[in-house]
Structures are given as structure tokens and as C-alpha cells.
Amino acid sequence: MAAPEPEAPPAARSRAKDHSPWNWLLFIPIVLPLIPVFFNADSPRFLGFPRFYWLQLAYILVGVATTTLVYQLTKKRAAAPSDGLAGADAGDR
């Protein structure tokens, strides 16, 4: 007789079922630095730095912004806690 499989924790189950289309936005900071036409030049310079160097910093900002946006759009909203007033009003009548 086979032993029953242990259940996965609730957090692992919810992550596995997260098929939000917003997750596709996470490919932007992966693919964007792989396109050589964006950084294959010396000009324009920004504060004396060639395009390649300041674009690397811009890619970091794009990655942070994209990750934050996807997180905010896909996180589970917590239910508003009840303050107990609805039960007290019903009992007073």
C-alpha cells in the first residue's frame, strides 16, 4: 500500500496557480538588454559616459519598475477586516 503524498503548503499552491497575463511583462527587462541596436554606438553621451554605460543603469531602473508593476498588479488583496460593528448593531435591535 502506497503512503499518501504530503500536501503542499498553501503559499506554494497559490504560486503554482498564478497564471496572470501581467507576468509576461517580466520579459521586458530580460529581452531589452539583448537588443544590440540600442547600445551599439558611442553617442549620445550622458554626463560624459558613453551610451553603453548609462543604458546599463537605465536597464536596472526598467527592471525594478517592471518588477514592481507586476508585483502590484498580481498580489492578492487581503480582505478588509470586520470591525465587529455589524454584529453589535444587529443585536441592539
Rg (C-alpha, Å): 24 Å
Structural class: mainly alpha
Helix content: 40-55%
What fraction of residues sit in β-strands?
under 5%
Low-confidence stretches: none
- Biggest beta-sheet profile: none
Order of helices and strands: HHHH
Number of helices, counting only DSSP H or I runs of 4 residues or more:
4
Straight-line N-to-C gap: 59 Å
The overall strand count is: 0
Query: Averaging pLDDT over every residue, what do you get?
Result: 78
So what's the overall shape?
elongated
Helix and strand arrangement:
Elements: H1 10-16, H2 28-31, H3 51-74, H4 85-92
Q: What is this structure, in a nutshell?
A:
This protein is an all-alpha fold and 93 residues long. It contains four helices and no strands.
Give your account of this protein's structure.
By secondary structure, this protein is mainly α. The chain has a domain at 26-75. Helix content is 46%, strand content 0%. It has helices at residues 10-16, 28-31, 51-74, 85-92. The longest helix is centred in the last third of the chain and has 24 residues, at 51-74. The model has no long low-confidence stretch (mean pLDDT 78). Pfam families: DUF3311. InterPro entries: DUF3311.
